[in-house]
Amino acid sequence: MTLSDKLYQKWMLEKFEPTKVSSIGKVMPLEVALSKYIKPGMSLHFAYSQGRPMAASNALVRVFKGKDPKFTFISSGIVANQTALVTEQIVSKLIVSFVGENYPTPGPNPLLQNAIDTGLVEIESNSLLVLTQRLAAGAYGFPFALTRSLNNSTMENNPSYRQISDPFGSGDPVGVVEALVPDITILHGLAADESGNILISPPFGDADVSAFSSRIGIIATVERIITTKELQLYSSLVKIPSYRVLSLSVTPFGCHPYAIYNPTDLDIPDYVEDSSTFRKIRKSVQDKNSFKNWTNDWIINVSNHEGYLKKLGTEKLEVLRSRAEGDAWLDDISKSDFERISKVKGYEAKEMMVIMAARVLSKKVQKEGHLVVQAGVGFANLAAWIAVYNLQHKFGIQAELVAEIGIYGYTPKAGEPFIFSNRNLTSVKSMSGVENILGLQVGGRHNVCVAIIGSGQIDPTGNINSTLTSNGGYLLGSGGANDIASTAAEVIVVSQQSQKRLIPELNYITSPGTNVSTLVTDLGVFEKQDGRLILTQYFENPDESTDNAIENIRSRCGWELEVSENVSAAQPPSQNDLLLLRLFDSRNDFFKHSQQLAEVTL
Q1: Per CATH, the architecture of 30-142+179-312 is what?
Q2: Contact (CB, 8 A) for 327 and 415
Q3: N or C: lower Cβ tally within 10 Å for the chain?
């Protein structure tokens, strides 16, 4: 063959051009995909990443309402509008790590609690990492996975957990958990090409590895379908190969009311969490009839996701998108708002609790050399944010925040206290998944992690319960708390104080207290000495003597209070720390500082 150089190169380019694969039958409406591939009795894994498949949850209710399909729901948690999967009797079993509401702060969901307590749904409680490990074992084709979690908690009685001897003779017992192999995985991606290769919005949660665990395949929703050439520009984010994908459904705002993050240059708009919708859902789940009305309005009587978006309205959708752009978060707090909040006098006991917890955490980092700070949810999250801010800005210590979904090294922004807020992701130094953060950064071989978590109840040895009430009613579950408490080098606990919270013995241990060193309440600081938490600092009230302050703490402590010989009054919070805390909580999601800021209308 005789060819000129240009013709030769052209021939070579054409010869080795990537094959264009047909996408016949893969792209289809969401309801069509669910009807085609999902059958009654199946186990369904709702994959968990920055992009959560909330539209798919709504569609599942529409397709199977009234058919009593008895699905098993497998996911990190069941939250918000997913409540309808239970109230409309779509699912009959939950294999989860969390049950309740998590935006902007965790709290119980009465309808889900009642369904569990009355036996309407069966529940198998796991921790977040264990659930991910079980799904990963299913993906790899192993019968079980190794774990450091669950031991010394009530969940070690799960039928899926065992301890075995180290087959290589160390003499140490090894925790193992049974593999999970769901029938189908449902997930939401940022984008996909028409073949079905899916680009996941980071951080990846459990959606990168465990999505391979499903027996049949993956039903995917995506914000947009793009060309393979566009996809190849961001191949590091393409976690799901086309051969695992059963169907693709274009579903913009498929995570609503949650957010999605786009770290690429693709023309796919980010959007932030919809705080007003979350408030409406959270209010409606307090009452059966109220949530039934919400479900009818937003799921049952809406023909499809397009109808859902139309009902939300173009203006709201544009606001959610615009607030995800660059420094748009600055618009949430105007200069006049800032000036008003700066002038708030005094402080709440809960504010003192959070700031004191931040101080304790900061001192632990400085003394012990911890470089990784695992932020739990709720008050613990705010304390971690303040501590790391001060460590970096005041002391020049580069301690890094991590969050369980797969976030390492981020800088929280004002105006949104949600731990997984979209607006914080642009500052992240590394994004991965649950196994990396909880398995390696928090609990791996090179453990330099101090963690701070909340609790429903705590006993004097530091054991924590967030799963069952004293009378056996369901609370929230573990989430990542058991994994954190089981493996972090050191654990600080934050809890409001009452006799119902600080109790002598737990009826359920969600997280073991072995690594708990400190408890900070809204009344004082307890440090572990000889295996028990004793009072070392109390929070002063100008109208109380020291003796009265300690007696008040004693009266609100369910166990026999032990007081250190060196007990002292804690210093009040600084104005700088109070300002920082209130800027994080500008909507008053946690506190009631007197100058409440006006939220952007959605």
Answers
A1: 3-Layer(aba) Sandwich (3.40)
A2: no
A3: N
Which of these ranges, 4-13, 416-425, 473-482, 508-517, has the smallest mean pLDDT? Answer: 4-13
pTM above threshold 0.90: yes
Q: Which residues does 187 contact at the CB level (< 8 Å), separation at least 6?
A: 46, 47, 49, 51, 53, 198, 200, 207, 211, 218, 219, 220, 221, 240
Q: What are phi and psi of 280, to 5 degrees?
A: -65, -45
Assigned CATH class of 349-533+575-584 = alpha beta
Contact, 383 vs 401, CB < 8 A? no
Residue 519: which of 541, 536, 539, 500 has the closest Cα?
A: 536
Residue 369 Ramachandran class (φ > 0 left, ψ -120 to 50 alpha, else beta): left
Best CA proximity match to 379, nearest among 452, 443, 432: 452
Residues 13 and 153 sit within 8 Å (Cβ to Cβ): no
> Using CA atoms in the order 333, 335, 340, 345, what is the torsion angle rounded to 10 degrees?
90
- For 221-251, write each residue's pLDDT tens digit: 999 999 999 999 999 999 999 999 999 999 9
* Same fold yes or no, 30-142+179-312 and 349-533+575-584: yes
The amino acid at residue 318 is E
* DSSP state letter for 19: P
Crossing angle, helix 305-312 and helix 54-64, to 10 degrees? 120
